[in-house]
Design brief:
mainly alpha; elongated
């Protein structure tokens, strides 16, 4: 095996190891709830009313979960308070995950799940 190939393999192993080490105690739960939230927003957007296309949409910008939630709230299809509650709980979970506090993270994820269930 050449030195270059060995160096590339080592770099890949270290990169994968580093990303796994950076994952906190509840990263999977955060990702799972965020995906459920995004799916719920997309389903609401597909099933609900339509609105006039925004200026940002005509400038080749992709919608984000936040912009979809804002549009849905404007149309009255979802509660902006529930969206804010979910986003605040997920933000708390991310902070707890970053500082490796599983108890606080679990509590924040439970709050996020509750807000998601009420959307």
């Amino acid at each position: 095996m050449s030195n270059r190939r060995a160096l590339v393999i080592c770099a890949i192993v270290f990169a994968a190891w580093g990303s796994a080490a950076n994952a906190g105690p509840c990263a999977q739960g955060i990702d799972r709830l965020q995906a459920q939230f995004d799916s719920k927003l997309e389903a609401n957007a597909a099933a609900g009313q339509s609105a006039r296309e925004s200026t940002a949409a005509t400038m080749n910008r992709q919608p984000t979960p936040h912009s979809i939630a804002a549009a849905e709230a404007t149309l009255g299809e979802i509660s902006p308070e529930k969206v804010q509650a979910f986003e605040a709980a997920i933000a708390r979970a991310r902070v707890a995950d970053r500082v490796a506090d599983p108890s606080a993270c679990d509590h924040a994820l439970a709050d996020a799940q509750s807000a998601l269930d009420q959307l």
